[in-house]
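Researcher: Here's a chain I'd like modeled. Treat it as a single chain, no partners, no ligands.
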Amino acid sequence: MAKLQDWRSHYNLINSMMAIDMVSIPITLEQLITAVQQLQPEERAEVARALILVDLRSDLRALIQELYAQPSVDEITDDNIMAEIKAVRQQSHQT
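Model: Modeled as a single isolated chain. Structure tokens:
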């Protein structure tokens, strides 16, 4: 149950981050790194978490797009599953 709560917390954080209007400030990567290095450890950790969540969100979006791009799979029945299990067991006994 704790993992579900953690997931909900991360999900809510992502949604709250996405609801914020984006601000554009011209800054170099070096300036950004310098600014982050000046933050307190807790604030640096928050920046790190935010970056990870952005990456996870884009990875999740790519995965969803990939799954939707695949052709639909025929419905698998219990009989199909049992036949596959029997075939694998037979194969493992033969080797």
